[in-house]
Amino acid sequence: MDLRPHIENFSRRLAEIEAALSDPRVFDNNQRFQELSKEYARLRELVKRGSGYLKVMADLEDNRALLQSEASDPEIAQLAREEIARLEAEEKRFALEVQRGMLPPNPADSRNTIVEIRAGAGGSESALFAAHLYRMYSRYAESRGWKLEALDSSPSELGGFKEVIFSVSGSEVFQRLKYESGVHRVQRVPATEAQGRIHTSTATVAVLPEAEEVDVQLRPEDLDITVCRASGPGGQGVNTTDSAVQVVHKPSGLIVRCADGRSQQKNKQQALTVLRSRLLEQTIAAENAKYAAQRKAQVGTGERNERIRTYNFPQNRVTDHRIELTLYNLPAVLDGDLDCLIEPLMAHDLEQRLAVFKH
């Protein structure tokens, strides 16, 4: 694919946006100003990547010509081959970024995210695995400079989680974490297994783009909000204040509980944010066929055969079944090194969307 015309289009559109933003009248419409500002930031980055792509292509052409002209000089030829290999990797990376910019942006990709992890099949072992997944996402968020905030959790007796809900805020959070939705399967020997047999258990992960008040209107008469005393681990403070908040949305029957903060008001606001995000997800699923039954597709029932990824401890192996990718670096993945899985998923998704885009 010749990307030069698309890069030229990015540059032309960037010039148009710059002209529009320089007009003082744009500030009269705040929503329009915000939309233009976001598009400007996106296009400026795309033009930068496009310039990088064009430079790499020019350097590749020069080095290929050098290799042909100096083929009789082994030392120069070897240097040219090494530089070509490096530039080809750079060209592939820049091309993917430019191609991604050719597609209409998904408004949800730039949003903060609500992540819900629940123990599935496998009893107490699945709850321990849910805790490992929570730690994995915590470390990944830390590595990307994102902010992770616990919203609610239900600890298990052995130190795991029956359920844990948290928010993640930062740059491109949903764009990357949305690929984590589904059933995660673990195969390992539990600490309680005396015979050394490998057990299989699962945990479900749901990733929701955080909804804003303008996305979902909550009417006071549709809400049943109750306050109760927080319980479970958390120190003395969490046990001495009536800070836990439960919100029931009567029309849908959805129930949200937030108890990880000491402030009753903060727990209430967080519970309403989670509720809006769940309702927004339902709205998207109803309006767009490709998201039909999105939540069911994300988390299924938690049965062992509904997996998107398998973490096999005896073989030090992690396999993503959607793209048939197998890696042998399980400890690094569980320690938050997720880009080795997410980047190929993003590239595969891009290829699928570009195929539709071209036709």
Offer a few descriptive terms.
359 residues, alpha+beta, 8-stranded mixed sheet, 10 helices, 11 strands, 48% helix
Structural account:
- It is a single chain.
- The strands form two sheets. Strands 2-3-1-5-4-9-10-11 form an eight-stranded mixed β-sheet, with helices on both faces. The chain has a three-stranded antiparallel β-sheet with strand order 6-7-8, with helices on one face.
- By secondary structure, the protein is of the alpha+beta class.
- The radius of gyration is 25 Å and the shape is flat.
- Mean pLDDT is 84; it is low at 232-240, 289-297 and 299-304.
- It contains ten helices and eleven strands.
- Helix 1 (4-21) runs antiparallel to helix 2 (30-69) and helix 2 packs antiparallel against helix 3 (74-102).
- A hairpin with a 4-residue loop joins strand 10 (317-320) and strand 11 (325-327).
- It has helices spanning 4-21, 30-69, 74-102, 124-143, 173-177, 236-239, 264-287, 294-299, 330-334, 339-358, and strands at residues 113-119, 147-155, 161-169, 182-188, 199-209, 223-228, 244-249, 254-258, 307-312, 317-320, 325-327.
User: Which regions contain 5 or more consecutive residues with pLDDT less than 50?
Assistant: 232-240, 289-297, 299-304
How would you characterize the largest beta sheet?
8 strands, mixed
Q: Helix count, per DSSP?
A: 10
How much is the radius of gyration in Å?
25 Å
Give the distance, in angstroms, between the N- and C-terminal Cα atoms. Answer: 14 Å
Tell me, briefly, the overall form.
flat
The proportion of residues in beta strands is 15-25%
- For the largest sheet, list the strands in their spatial order: 2-3-1-5-4-9-10-11
Q: H/E series, N to C?
A: HHHEHEEHEEEHEEHHEEEHH
Structural class: alpha+beta
Described by its quaternary structure, the protein is single chain
Q: Determine the mean pLDDT.
A: 84
Overall helicity: 40-55%
Question: Based on DSSP secondary structure assignment, what is the total number of beta strands?
Answer: 11
